[in-house]
Amino acid sequence: MQDNLIVRTTAFAAHVVSAYLKEGDRAVDATCGNGKDTLFLCGRVGKTGLVYAFDIQKQALEKARRTLETAGETAKVKWILDSHQNLLDYVQAQEVQAVLFNLGYLPGGDKQVTTRRESTLEGARAALEALKRGGILSLVMYPGHPQGSLERLALLEMARSLDPKRFHCQHVSPVNQGEGKILPPEVLFITKKI
Ligand SMILES: C[S@@+](CC[C@H](N)C(=O)[O-])C[C@H]1O[C@@H](n2cnc3c(N)ncnc32)[C@H](O)[C@@H]1O
Questions:
Q1: How confident is the model at residue 180 (pLDDT cuts 50, 70, 90)?
Q2: How far apart are CA 36 and CA 19, in angstroms?
Q3: From CA 13, how far away is CA 31, in angstroms rounded?
Q4: I need a surface site. Which of 90, 139, 141, 142 has the fewest CB within 10 A?
Q5: 79 and 53 Cβ atoms separated by less than 8 Å
Q6: Average pLDDT over the chain, rounded to whole?
Q7: Pocket test for ligand 1, best of 8, 41, 106 (most atoms within 8 A of CB)
Q8: The domain that contains 153 carries what CATH number?
Q9: Could you tell me if the CB of 104 is within 6 A of ligand 1?
Q10: How many other C-beta atoms lie within 10 A of the C-beta of residue 194?
Q11: Would 4 be classed as within a structural domain?
């Protein structure tokens, strides 16, 4: 069955980002984790493109490599064991067409190793530098846990402060979900206009 796009936030984000990518592009997975998003990006940029995959956990990058191997994906990936806040040490300004952040912790991993407000903000700012004109930054946020809630507030504040002539920011948030249970994920898209 096809993904139900507005129910599954990560699939929805990928669907939107997909429209911004073509064969030969360069892209960044800023939170590689188990490699699902890296695999998606590889599929879009193809053999002539390049994907930078960041994670601070070695085990995540190893798992992601296996995810790609199992899928038979042979697109070029640079695996980077470092925080996305150092993104510009690896990626040039205006080099990439898309940057994905899927915040939070590694599914099935240590929940203490989660993305955090300060490094996420620095990473998002670096990502905006790394984007080409017409490129897109996508951030899937999880306000249902304490760090996720802080990240969400900081990212939305940052987005509101961006020059509307240079950037267009879109925040997608479910309006009838999460009552009495964990708050549902949201997504923030930022495209660089000039
Ligand atoms: C929700 S998971 C990502 C899921 C992944 N995109 C996938 O498709 O499987 C979040 C990941 O971010 C990583 N992470 C946490 N802080 C980070 C940082 N400062 N820089 C890069 N990765 C980070 C975690 O280790 C974890 O693997």
A1: low
A2: 18
A3: 14
A4: 90
A5: yes
A6: 95
A7: 106
A8: 3.40.50.150
A9: yes
A10: 8
A11: no
In-domain check, residue 70:
yes
Output the CA 118–ligand 1 centroid distance in Å.
15
Q: Does 1 map to a domain?
A: no
Would you state the structure tokens that stand for residue 40, as one six-digit string? 């998606």
Beta bridge partners of 50: 26, 76
Written as six digits, the tokens of 128 are 């905006």
Which domain, by its residues, includes 111?
9-192
Gap between the Cα atoms of 15 and 164, Å rounded: 24
Write out the H or E segment, with its range, that includes residue 119. helix 117-130
Write down the pLDDT at residue 111.
86
Q: Would 106 be classed as within a structural domain?
A: yes
Mutational pocket test of ligand 1: of 38, 51, 55, the residue with most ligand atoms within 8 Å of the beta carbon: 55
Q: What are phi and psi of 120, to 5 degrees?
A: -65, -45
Q: How many domains does the chain have?
A: 1
Query: Encoding tokens for residue 60?
Result: 């995540």
Helix or strand or coil: residue 42?
A: helix
Q: Is the CB of 34 under 6 A from ligand 1?
A: yes
